[in-house]
Amino acid sequence: MNCIDLDPLIYPYLDGELDETERRHLEGHVAACVGCRGRLSREAAFQGALRRSAQLRTRAPAPEALRAMLRAGIRRESRRVQMLSWARWGSLALAAAAAGVVYLEQRPGHREQLLEDAALRYQRRLPYELTTASRADVERWFGDQMSTRVALPHVPGATIAGARLSNLREHEAAYVVYQLPSQQRGEDRRLGLFVVEDAEREIPSVAAWPQVGVRNVRGVSIASWRSGGLVYELVSDMDEADLRRTLREIDPTAPAPPPPEAVPSPRQRPMLPIPPRNPTLELIPAGFQN
């Protein structure tokens, strides 16, 4: 592993999502590389501050000034990481040119990085933090964990297998897995949905629903759309035609059904209190009277 390989693995490592082999390779490189060790330490501190801020927001709304400062910090860090990566790639290009090799590869853009990250996390089958829950329960759970309300689309015939907090690069994301029964014999189809807050439209090339773009990344299909200040990335092992057929049945605006109301128990008539004994009112048989 080298410094460039480390880039897409920092956030999965901090979230505990790498397998044993990947984690061992990353930690071996960081132990020998002072620059990457310092960067990993800064990223861990930054992510810890964001998570502590999210916990505070569940108790009381954060001031708008604080939220603006955090968003600006994320943007600055994202630009710093991108410029650093460009510099590394540029150094490789110069070295290749000096050796007489034509260097054609370019650093992927921000949009491509997000899609690659979504594909990798989908293929890793991330563990769930919430399982066997209804859509309404999952929305409430994300509402307690994140600074924005996450509206989940209704997928007819599908059940929610689980949910967790995740990341797509520097963006905090809600991650939900739907299980869709297969039309043929075999395993159910798995749909992984990442939902990212993007009220300021920092993520490019994503149109508003119902204009959905579908791309193939790392052997999976990813459908992308925007709705209500959120960006949705729906990942599946279906081919593009099957995924588009599924998308035609999805309703992103359908409200989650309310939880079932408890059935009230039959109303019982209250028992009347027993009055205290009053000797003056008691009847005494005549044979026992003096």
Please outline what is shown here.
This protein is of the alpha+beta class. The protein has 8 helices and 7 strands.
Helix/strand layout:
Elements: H1 3-6, H2 10-14, H3 20-32, H4 34-59, H5 64-98, H6 110-124, E1 130-131, H7 135-145, E2 159-168, E3 171-180, E4 189-197, E5 213-217, E6 220-227, E7 230-236, H8 240-247
Antiparallel strand pairs: 1-2, 2-3, 3-4, 4-7, 5-6, 6-7
Number of domains: 2
Mean pLDDT: 77
Instruction: Kindly estimate the percentage of residues that lie in beta strands according to DSSP.
Output: 15-25%
Question: Which of globular, elongated, flat, extended, rod-shaped describes the shape?
Answer: globular
Radius of gyration: 29 Å
What's the SSE pattern? HHHHHHEHEEEEEEH
Assembly classification: single chain
Task: State the end-to-end CA separation.
Answer: 113 Å
Structural class of the secondary elements?
alpha+beta
